[in-house]
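Bench notes, afternoon.
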Amino acid sequence: MKNRFLLLVNKLWQNRRLFIQTINHFLNNFKPIENDRQHCRMSFRAPAIAGVIISTVTALSVAALSVTSNPLPNISYKTSWIGNTFGGGSKWVQIQIAAMYVGNDGTVYTNSVWDEAGREAGIYKDGDAIGKASNLHGWGRTGGEAVTANGKYLYIAMTQGAIDRMLIQDYPPSQTNWYCVRRYNLSGEPAPFAGGRGYDKSMLIVSTSGQVTGLANAGSELYVSDSAANRIRVYDAETMAELRSWSVDRPKLIAVDTQSNLWILQAKDATNPPKILHYSKTGTLLSKKITDVVDPTALAMDNQGRLLVAENGPRQQVLIYNITSIPTLVGTFGTQRGIYSGTPGEIGDLKLGGLTGVGTDASGNLYVSLDGFNRSGTDLRKFNASGSMEWRLLGLQFVDNADADPGTNGVDVFTKQEHFVMDYSKSNGQEWSYKGYTLDKFRYPDDLRLQETVHGTTSVFVRRIEGKRFLYLTGMFADSLAIYRFDGESAVPSAIFSRKHSKWPANQPAIGSWLWHDKNGEGSIQSDEYESLGAEDDSIWGWEVDSKGDVWQASEAGYIKHYRYQGLDTHGSPIYTSAASEVIPRPAPFNKLLRVKYFPDTDVMYLGGYTVDRPHTGEEWGIVGTEIVRYDNWTKDKKLRWRITLPYDPKANPMLIIKAMDVAGDRVFAVDSRKADVYVYDAGTGAFVAKLSPGSEVGKETGWIDIPYALRAYRRTNGEYLVFVEEDAKAKVIMYRLGQK
């Protein structure tokens, strides 16, 4: 234990704030503290994270955020950002909202399983991020799927995982999770109670088998959906003692009406659609019920005693029911078909998309939370009683990056599912406006962005081919390259390169790598639209789409594969075939290739990887490598022009490795995976030019760099460089703006 503590002290010294917190932790009988470092993650940060245990060692041994105190502004640049209402520091909008409760005074309380910087449960009011439920991140803890409050307490569904091998009292035993309701005061600090569990006695253990899926309160009683036991449990809201319970199959959301009766969502299963059932507060099933719903995701009562249902099916609306007698749909809120109405994907105040929460305050103002269908991105809106939007908070980016459209001089910028329009005359963080949502769940359910976790599609290449705009997307592990054509604001699945067989789609070739091409233009995947490309190759990390539309792969196995663009089909999708490809042997001085960047107009190739002189010595994977090499006359004699020796010290603390690179104009850019410093080199000579670090505009902080294409660069016609860098910790993309040459 002593040796471990000394090791952690050494690691934590680089972040003084967390160091002091940790000392206090050990001095206070091992009382756990909150660690809001982004990499207290589980299963590589999959959204279904709640059932996995985070070890205390992980929670303690990583810094809260990479904070740069001494940026090196040896060239003129400024730091801006895209995708979050706030720049960082103490204010940011969380990455996703799974549940929401609105207090009478308009305070919005949220909950989610995971937020990279620790705002699993956020507190918002008047268009501002005013707080969060504390100590809900790290130490085996995550948030959950339900939230409620009364005039005194906030109640959060959460998970407490086991903490093995540490001398901490009252934690779950090994291989066990507690699925709890945790009580807080309304400012977000834990509110312990007699008999409470956990290190601070604020947790009520509901189950060790499954999540708490619904919470509501009325008067002095707290109602809880115990999904694993198929029961509704009722607790005293002050003492937290269980008062009674009754059986309900598949219980989820709960709302309490003005008669103190309960409306409970019964989740669908393989044979039954969802229903909203009516119970007395003592558990008697009443005759009223609502069955005309498709995908209800939230319930709430409005100030007129009507039941509000967030309908996340094709309607994409809030449904309003009069429940005084037989439940009757008396109104809706939001445009029918939501984000897909009018011009599909175009953002509008009343165009809802991916509903996760609904509620009203005492004055009848309506609040709606949206997540864009795949639990990646927050859109929280307030509407007044007349239906006009009063404010909106956005936290749209997670495991994501941005790229500029070369056809509009960078005025249009795209992330994996958002379209932004830029006004570069505006101040930092104000340049972007949210224009479009490019994923269409209902027209194109085979979209890779829906089928995979956040890791499946994380990095965007924006290309113009024959004057038309296309998106190319690859993921955290570079397993595939997905290709999309545009239909208005919607990105239509057109092709997929996959380097290996995977779980999705079901009708892919049984073995090997493959190419899917949307031959009939439907944007859906049929079994006769595949071409096998040969053996699997898990060592492909390098993907590139050049300005002519050619696709390049770089493999650690020792080759570059080049697929030549073969034109557009009758539906506007790019055509690629195995017959129109070539395999190029790995050139000297590399012994492992990891990145490829080609410019056909000048026949210049940039490759990244490990070299004979600077080999792979650490345990890292999927990075750029130790060198970037430029070759002129690539298609003729591959003349080596220069070699950039990249920063590389995998044994340092924090380790120093380069995760992503890009080339634009006469600059080469490379970003470090831990501090997110961007190293800038001269593309003509390979000489080091400058280092970019997050500025005060974003609190001089950033999260780790996780994805292989976490950096994109573009030079505008006025000479200004835009450098986009992944920033997961606080749900945005950092944008460096380098002055005109």
